[in-house]
Design brief:
Blueprint: E1 9-11, E2 14-17, H1 29-43, E3 49-51, E4 56-59, H2 69-80, E5 84-87, E6 100-101, H3 106-118, E7 134-135, H4 136-147, E8 153-156, H5 160-163, H6 175-179, H7 189-201
Parallel strand pairs: 1-3, 2-4, 5-8
Antiparallel strand pairs: 6-7
Helix pairs in contact: 4-7
């Protein structure tokens, strides 16, 4: 009997280094990152993984902002309808792509900080989030919707090395910050992603 042939899954490798220091070396940090990623992709050849020849290297680009070529390509790929991959679920009762996080819009986090600065009577350690966990699938669907593109998501196996430790659900308890008097609310995921994609990522000049 012939075994089923695994579907081909093309894999791109993205590397980044915040500064240009050391990039002049014959073997630098970007090479090391790519070498490690390529080795892992090759180890999954039996699962159909194949390496894309195109390189996505951001040497000298800070991780503190989004002015990075690879991120721009990601937005372009979504618009072009290229396949994006999310992890399958390896836990009974949880659907593929339904791993959940409490995604908070950066504007909301800043508003909380500004409120605390303006309210010196309040102090302490606060767990800040929306108080509502949403899935990675929800996040990507919101990005597709913001770009007016049809969803094209494929689910891939989670690497065995992280399956047992991967968190399937995290959600902030915002009761303490609300009891302290904060009533600014938190932006819904779809609205936040829409604002960010349309107002920043998908603009020719992101600073106007």
């Amino acid at each position: 009997m012939t075994a089923n042939k695994a579907a081909i899954r093309w894999c791109a490798v993205y590397t980044r280094k915040s500064s240009e220091e050391g990039l002049e070396q014959q073997f630098n940090s970007l090479h090391a990152q790519r070498e490690a990623a390529e080795a892992y992709i090759k180890s999954q050849r039996h699962e159909g993984w194949r390496l894309l020849a195109e390189k996505y290297d951001d040497g000298g680009y800070s991780g503190g902002n989004l002015e990075r070529p690879a991120l721009k390509r990601l937005v372009a790929d979504i618009r072009a309808g290229k396949v994006l991959e999310l992890f399958k679920s390896h836990r009974e009762g949880i659907a593929d792509g339904d791993q959940r996080r409490d995604f908070i819009y950066i504007d909301d986090a800043v508003r909380v900080v500004m409120w605390l600065l303006a309210t010196p009577s309040v102090s302490g350690i606060f767990n800040v989030g929306t108080g509502k966990a949403r899935s990675f699938k929800d996040l990507m669907l919101a990005a597709y919707a913001a770009l007016g593109a049809a969803p094209n998501i494929r689910y891939v196996d989670m690497p065995p090395s992280i399956r047992n430790s991967y968190q399937y659900f995290t959600q902030s308890d915002v009761d303490r910050i609300t009891r302290a008097g904060y009533n600014g609310g938190f932006t819904a995921l779809e609205e936040a992603v829409g604002q960010y994609v349309k107002g920043y990522l998908d603009r020719a000049d992101r600073y106007r």
